[in-house]
Model the fold of this input.
Amino acid sequence: MSGLRRLILWALGWIERYRYLKFGIVGASGAVVNLVVLHFGHEYIFNTFEAAYRKPYFSLAFAILIATINNFTWNRLWTWRDRVQTLEADESPGPVSLRMLGVEFSQYATACAFGIGLQYVLTMLLSGVMDYRLANVVAILAASVSNFLANDRWTFRKP
Done:
C-alpha cells in the first residue's frame, strides 16, 4: 500500500471516529448548498420580489430549506448512521418506513429551528453592514454548535 493511500485511509478513519467533525463536514456541504441556492435565488429566481427590498428574504428562506434537507440526509446517512440503524432496528425490522423518516426529519427540523432562526436573523442584521453572502456564512457558523447539540441529544440520541 502506498504512503499516500495509507495516509488517506488513516485520515478517513480518524474522521469517522469524531462525530462533530463529520457534522462539520456535512455542515460545510450544507453551507455550500445554502450559498449557491441563496445566490441563484436572490440574483435570478426571486429577483423581481427582492429587488425593491435589496435583501434576500425569499431566497434565504428557500436556501435554508434546501440546505436543511441536504444536511438531514447526510447526517442521517453518515454522521449518526450507527444510531439511526439502532433506532430503526428497535422500531421495526425491514426497510425504513416513510413515517419513521418523517418523524426523524420533523425532529431534525425542530432541533435546528433555533439555529435556523438565529441564522435568518443574523443574516438579515449583518447584511445591512456587509455582503449578504458573507453575513450568511457568519450566521451559519454561529448556528452550527446549537444544531449539533440538539440533534446529538434528541434527533439521533443514543437508544
Q: What stands out?
A: Residues 18-155 form one domain. The mean pLDDT is 85. The CA atoms of residues 119 and 139 lie 5 Å apart.
